[in-house]
Design brief:
By secondary structure, the chain is mainly beta. Helices cover about 10% and strands about 35% of the residues.
């Protein structure tokens, strides 16, 4: 049992919750929908890598197309995921693998190519390799970085590039990321690199060889391990969080830095995007969740509810609600206009498409609430609402604006600017914030010239394909003599990283110099969110939080993957299934 779970104030504090309530209703733990190793024995997780979970839908004819993959210690499991519908049958994994000498650390399915007969699953390992397997065909097709010539450090994050059937990105605890193509080999010698682009605290190199080989690109980012990265919903931007405490957001196509943020202290461990790509949430060793505006490149709120490190953050696409007007696009009667105003919980694709319709100058929602969650080493699940009084603190409350926008719906001039701090009125910020935000009395202005959010129009796969052929017309070889190689020991900042690319980072990582700046505002300078829900739900530290349509999935380091039915969905798991499921379930 972890230190955080063992200590505390008596029985009530340490009681593990099996349900919790929000404004939508009660979420309930489905004990018979729990996934784990077949023997259901708690895993002794000392010294092992975090348990991770990946999902894919294979669109089979039975209507039960969800598949789940999870790693526990040296083992990797692949099951049919029955969710809220039926009890888990742990006796019949589709595939199970036990590795020797190395442990799986992370994995990702290619949703683009998945079918009922075949799936492509990438698995990263503690010794630095990446394996491509098909757990349905039970095949192992390729092993990348097999001889560890590219990077010897632990793989921290692996993901398919959105929209691509063959490109994937791998992050390591060395502080480097590598872009691979599944069709290419890794070569028999260590790669030689040529500088493509460099900027503040990062450098990107291409692989210099006669024949095209992996890696296509090497990204050296910050100081210390890259703990996680996440692609924006449109696939054009990449958010990375590192052990040096920085969030860095890159234009992935253009290989350019868009913006940065610094943790209050310590490393940042996790990162996620809002469904519309407007906001990024990061969590880490400062026990906080930090909300960062992609458009304004600044911290707009922090959330405090965890008592230890935050290990995962995720947006709930299904509970993000929008009430919106599009005055620039609307034409028709008042009745038609009323039909365009919608509110409530949406399916994820509907929410994402409606949120993405928002343009920073053409239209803005009347009211929007983003729901996100976090889990931590304190064994607690927190749910948070990001509401418009935080997002737009200088504007009147939504009731007033709803009325105003409806009245002016047919006129193109009734557009409210999306940059609320552009009007220079900071005095109203304190008045428009709700009571639970005692520290939200002086929101800083956004930086001038926040028009950095424009992205290239080319799809991500097209944009990166130029790297696959190495026909890099826009290459700027300002310093071709620099073969920048980094030799960090695992998880630690190397004392040798004193080359020019890291000098700026070293000055920036001094907390005294960043605290109080836009990189890292003081606590009293931004709103402090309180969690809607903050419940202890496990015995061991939590490592997984995934929002699905019918449920929320969490997992802890003991190797138990839990399914929490959303309000109204619990009845889908029949009493017959409950009765027939195996006994001895650990809750």
């Amino acid at each position: 049992m972890s230190k955080m779970a063992a200590e505390g104030g008596g029985k009530e504090m340490n009681e593990i919750k099996s349900q919790f309530s929000t404004r939508e209703g009660a979420y309930k733990l489905l004990t018979h929908s729990e996934y784990s190793r077949p023997n259901r024995v708690p895993f002794n997780s000392q010294g092992s890598n975090p348990v991770r979970v990946s999902f894919v839908n294979v669109n089979d004819q039975s209507g039960n197309g969800d598949r789940i993959c999870f790693n526990v210690g040296r083992e990797l499991y692949f099951y049919i995921y029955k969710g809220v519908r039926k009890a888990a049958d742990l006796s019949k994994p589709i595939d199970k693998r036990i590795y020797k000498g190395t442990q799986p650390t992370c994995h990702d399915f290619n949703h683009l190519t998945a079918t009922a007969e075949s799936v492509s699953l990438l698995v990263g390992f503690s010794a630095g390799q990446v394996q491509l397997i098909d757990p349905i065909k039970k095949e192992t097709s390729k092993l990348f970085n097999e001889e560890r010539l590219i990077d010897k450090s632990r793989v921290t994050c692996v993901k398919w590039v959105p929209g691509s059937e063959s490109l994937f990105l791998v992050a390591h605890s060395s502080g480097s990321m590598y872009l691979y193509n599944v069709e290419h080999t890794c070569g028999t010698t260590a790669p030689h690199y040529q500088l493509l682009k460099q900027g503040e605290s990062y450098a990107v190199h291409t692989c210099k060889s006669k024949a095209t080989r992996n890696p296509l690109l090497k990204w050296s980012v910050g100081d210390g391990a890259i703990n996680e990265f996440s692609f924006s919903p449109d696939g054009k931007f990449l958010a990375c969080v590192s052990q040096d405490g920085f969030l860095r957001v890159f234009n992935f196509d253009a290989v350019e830095l868009h913006g940065t943020m610094k943790s209050y202290f310590g490393g940042l461990l996790c990162v996620c995007w809002s469904p519309d790509g407007k906001y990024i949430v990061a969590g880490g060793e400062d026990d906080l969740v930090t909300v960062w505006s992609f458009v304004d490149c600044r911290v707009i709120a922090r959330g405090h509810g965890h008592k230890s490190w935050v290990s995962v953050v995720a947006f709930d696409h299904y509970t993000t609600s929008v009430e919106e007007t599009d005055p620039m696009e609307f034409s028709g009667s008042d009745e038609d206009f009323q039909e365009q105003i919608q509110f409530g919980r949406d399916r994820a694709n509907s929410t994402q498409s409606r949120l993405s319709k928002r343009n920073s100058t053409d239209s803005r929602p009347v009211s929007v609430t983003y729901r996100f969650g976090s889990v931590g080493q304190d064994t607690q699940l927190c749910l948070w609402d990001l509401t418009e009084d935080i997002l737009f603190p200088h504007l009147p409350l939504s009731r007033t604006r709803t009325h105003t926008n409806v009245m002016n719906a047919s006129g193109a001039s009734a557009v409210i600017p999306s940059n609320p701090s552009a009007n220079g009125s900071n005095a109203s910020a304190a008045n428009s914030l709700p009571a639970p935000l005692p520290r939200s009395n002086s929101l800083p202005h956004s930086a001038a010239g926040s028009g950095k959010s424009s992205a290239t129009d080319n799809p991500i796969a097209t944009g990166v394909s130029k790297f696959a052929t190495l026909s890099l017309h826009d290459r700027k070889d300002r310093h071709p003599e620099k073969d920048h190689k980094r030799n960090h020991s695992m998880g630690h900042i190397s004392s040798k990283s004193s080359d020019k690319l890291n000098l700026l980072t070293k000055t920036k990582t001094d907390p005294a110099k960043t605290l109080g700046t836009q990189l890292c505002p003081r606590m009293e300078d931004v709103p402090l969110l309180e969690p809607l829900v903050c419940k202890k739900i496990a015995h061991e530290r939590l490592t997984v939080l995934i929002f699905l349509e019918d449920c929320i999935v969490t997992a802890c380091q003991e190797g138990f993957i839990c399914t929490w039915a959303r309000p109204g969905k619990v009845g889908l798991l029949s009493s017959q299934n409950q009765a027939n499921s195996p006994s001895g379930t650990v809750v």
